[in-house]
Design goal:
By secondary structure, the chain is an alpha/beta fold. The strands form 5 sheets. Strands 1, 2, 3, 4, 5, 11 and 12 form a 7-stranded mixed beta sheet that branches. The protein has a 6-stranded mixed beta sheet with strand order 24-23-25-26-27-28, covered by helices on one side. A hairpin with a 4-residue loop joins strand 25 and strand 26. The longest helix is centred in the C-terminal third of the chain and has 49 residues. The N and C termini lie far apart (91 Å).
């Protein structure tokens, strides 16, 4: 990570002689006022040594067991606490019960806040046999990976059936994550019942069709309705009492002109009034000439409907197996002969590695910035055990890299592509006759095509196990963590202030591999530093209120601070300590929580309607979007996809958009220009490929500009614009702004030599002074009133000063005349 170490032009806290770290020490607290990053301790902070993972995981599970019983009493809450991922898989994934599971982490305040609602929802649906559970994602990394849980609390529903995946040749339950904002008991209930199977209740639209669905095998409950959706209580009844009762809905259209639209069921007399129509009955057998049993409840509540049906159920049946839907299109279910095949093929399923197709390798691996571990495998009987053992060795490395599998012997047209891909990526070493798999590591990089990938060399001395895999990954992970010392600590804290800083304090000599991986995965959101303390009595630890080592601190400016306030120099930095154990999953969750909260704060401040900056590629577009708008033009120089990956380009464009939102209401017009395609134009503003992306603020009518130097962070971009607007940064003059070349420049057009910029130091109000309207363009009424008030105060103060000067002069003149008169009188007396 390249960081600009320049003398700051602003004050972190106040104007006194304390250094930055001392001022932070005075503001460091065990929990922030907003509670944004408070991730309550699950256990004492332990050593970050990688060798202690087993101890950390054990303590994490113990901590969760205490945590889950604190949130949910096993006897009264209605929520089951899973103690392991194996127990979860056994009860949820391999049984036909419908589940709603809350994924939590120790100290997660939102998890605690929603616990009462989650418990009330569980108790209210107990009679429908929808089960509620909770499990710790931090103590069960393999489960978190397979469920793709990226935040807590996460509410995930699981239906009662499995779905057959013909490509992966496995049968598994599909998950359904709750995406709603409301976390009330009612919202959770509505989500829970949506996970009930919706094909167990048969819907017919004619009385004549009843003869095809009733039978002598089981009783048939018939419900007459004009609703388009089946009530959840009937879905639950049909599912929970499968093979003991059949549930049928007879639908009709109540919007017709018929006086009595409700159909008359077989065996019943015609009703004379619509209110007397019978809508719920039970047929004991297939004889529709017999009078059915009428519903005898006072209301159509689920308890009374369940009680009525319960009195007429067919004979008991044994435990039912989980059904597998093999073809959603025609509802075909697996036969007994296919179950053995499914069980055999399910052993190839992997919850850690996601199987990918060869044709998407570039998109999934080389174009992705995140670190990726690729396993090329042979899925054969001979290789099955070896492959699964290798996969299991990655359990503790989940979330530190994406885990993808490419099978080279899977049936289908992609087999030749898979073999070719494996041969290319492994330099011809795989596939071969002896090996069952090959591992490749692609570290975090903005351009993986130009960077090296690293194979894992399997041997007797280097088997595939947790320790060797960690050493392999950590050794090849780029170290972007800045090494801190007493000499550069204050400068580090003052640099790029609006990007939160994550600092590890430790006595280790080198940056721990786990922390390097963390830094790489959160590179775009935080700056990472490593401070090596001499011992536990190091005075720097006292400044940050660090009682023991190792410790992690998150240093950040309150997201509520506006760019205007930051540009004024009156900002404060806060500190939040990480209280959990030094485990990657805990640290990752903590930083994700911080990232999401900061983003929410920024979005709350940003106006709702801001147009994304347009991409300017012609001179006419530049004139229309910049020169003709007046005010200041913020030019975001962002290299296009011809020189960077699509994901990187989109990320930078999004950052420019966020900066435009932050400066909304100010006199700025934002555009995007590709500095590679428009070389001459970019170089005129001192923008070269090595210092882009960046932003130049231009006043077209005055021919003055200021190009930013620093990280391409939305808040830093907004701060630069604000500094230019307030005249607090240097600007340069350009006598002739080069034109945008329509369609871009060719290589031979790259002969423009920009003139030497004329550096001037003056108040930027000169730039904005061409037209008064430009200076106030986009300002709110309150800001305009404040400007007028300050102007009036300055005029009154100036008038008062002049008046005081005149009084002093008159008084001084009177004294001189008086003295002269006295001297003349004395002279006459002599």
């Amino acid at each position: 990570m390249m960081m600009m170490m320049v003398a700051p032009r602003w004050v972190l806290f106040d104007d006194n002689n304390e250094n930055a770290s001392s001022r932070i020490a005075r503001r460091t607290t065990r929990s922030t006022s907003a509670g944004v990053f408070a991730f309550a301790s699950a256990s004492d902070v332990g050593d970050e040594d990688d060798d202690d993972d087993e101890h950390e995981n054990a303590s994490s599970n113990d901590a969760f067991h205490t945590e889950v019983t604190t949130l949910y009493d096993p006897n009264t809450s209605g929520v089951f606490g899973f103690q392991s991922s194996e127990q979860f898989k056994e009860k949820v994934m391999e049984m036909r019960d419908v589940w709603v599971v809350q994924f939590i982490a120790p100290g997660c305040q939102p998890c605690k806040d929603m616990a009462p609602s989650f418990s009330r929802a569980a108790l209210s649906l107990k009679s429908m046999n929808i089960k509620f559970g909770a499990i710790d994602i931090a103590g069960n990394e393999d489960l978190g990976r397979s469920m793709q849980i990226s935040r807590v609390p996460a509410i995930v529903g699981f239906g009662g059936k499995k779905t057959w995946n013909p490509y992966r040749k496995i049968a598994q339950k599909l998950s359904n994550e709750y995406r709603g904002d409301a976390l009330t008991a009612r919202a959770l209930r509505e989500f829970a019942v949506k996970n009930l199977p919706d094909d167990e209740v048969e819907r017919i639209d004619s009385i004549d069709e009843l003869k095809n669905v009733v039978s002598d095998d089981v009783p048939t409950l018939v419900y007459v309705t004009d609703k388009s959706e089946t009530p959840s209580m009937l879905k639950a009844l049909a599912w929970n009492q499968k093979n003991r009762i059949r549930v049928v809905e007879v639908t009709y259209d109540s919007s017709t002109d018929d006086l009595l639209p409700t159909p008359v069921l077989p065996g019943l007399e015609a009703h004379e009034d619509e209110e007397d129509a019978v809508k719920l009955v039970l047929y004991k057998d297939a004889d529709l000439t017999k009078k059915p049993i009428l519903f005898d409840g006072e209301s159509m509540s689920k308890d009374e409907v369940f009680a009525f049906a319960g009195k007429h159920l067919g004979p008991e049946v044994g435990d039912l197996e989980v059904e597998v839907i093999r073809n959603k299109k025609d509802g075909e279910k697996s036969s007994d002969g296919e179950k053995k095949e499914e069980e055999e093929e399910n052993k190839y399923d992997s919850s850690l590695f996601i199987e990918k197709q060869p044709k998407s390798f570039e998109q999934d691996v080389t174009e992705k910035k995140e670190a990726v571990v690729v396993m090329f495998t042979k899925r054969t009987d001979e290789c099955s055990l070896k492959v699964e053992e290798a996969i299991d060795a990655f359990v503790k490395l989940q979330f530190q890299a994406e885990l993808y599998e490419y099978v080279v012997n899977r049936d289908g047209t992609d087999i030749s592509n898979a073999v070719k891909l494996a041969e290319t990526q492994t330099m011809g070493k795989f596939p071969n006759k002896e090996d069952c798999f090959s591992l490749m590591y692609y570290p975090f990089s903005d351009n993986k095509e130009d960077d090296e990938s690293y194979p894992f060399e399997v041997s007797e001395d280097n088997p595939v196990n947790d320790a060797n895999l960690k050493a392999w990954m950590y050794e090849n992970t780029p170290d972007i963590v800045l090494r801190l010392s007493q000499d550069n600590l204050d400068q580090y804290l003052s640099t790029d202030p609006f990007t939160p800083k994550c600092v590890l304090f430790s006595q280790k000599d080198d940056t721990p591999g786990m922390y390097k991986t963390l830094a790489a995965n959160f590179k775009d959101d935080f700056h990472f530093g490593f401070f090596q303390a001499e011992d536990k009595n190091d005075p720097n630890l006292q400044k940050f209120n660090i009682p023991k080592l190792p410790a992690v601190q998150l240093l950040f400016i309150n997201p509520a601070i506006t760019p205007q306030q930051e540009a004024s120099g009156n900002v404060q930095m806060n500190s939040a300590p990480f209280p959990g154990p030094m485990n990657y999953i805990y640290l990752r969750q903590w930083l994700m929580e911080a990232k999401n909260q900061i983003k929410k704060k920024d979005e709350a401040k940003s106006p709702g309607k801001v147009v994304p900056p347009p991409h300017v590629a012609t001179q006419k577009e530049f004139h229309d979007e910049c020169e003709s708008k007046g005010g200041l033009c913020a030019i975001a120089f962002i290299p296009g996809t011809s020189s960077s990956s699509q994901s990187m380009f989109e990320d930078r464009v999004e950052r420019a958009f966020e900066a435009a939102k932050l400066t909304s209401g100010r006199p700025f017009t934002w555009i995007i220009v590709d500095p590679i395609v428009q070389k001459t134009f970019a170089r005129a503003f001192d923008v070269l490929p090595h210092n882009s992306p960046t932003v130049t603020v231009l006043q077209p009518r005055k021919g003055r500009y200021a190009t930013m130097s620093g990280s391409f962070d939305p808040r830093e971009l907004a701060k630069h614009c604000e500094l230019v607007l307030n005249g607090k940064t240097r600007t340069f003059m350009i006598q002739d702004v080069p034109k945008i070349i329509d369609g871009g420049e060719s290589e031979d057009e790259n002969d423009y030599e920009p003139e030497e910029p004329i550096e001037e130091e003056f108040d930027l109000s000169d730039i904005m002074g061409e037209e008064t309207d430009d200076a106030t363009l986009g300002l709110t009424r309150a800001e305009l009133a404040e400007l007028e008030r300050k102007k009036e105060e300055e005029e009154l103060a100036e008038a008062e000063r002049i008046k005081e000067e005149e009084k002093k002069q008159q008084k001084s003149s009177g004294k001189k005349k008086k003295k002269k008169g006295k001297k003349k009188k004395k002279k006459e007396e002599l």
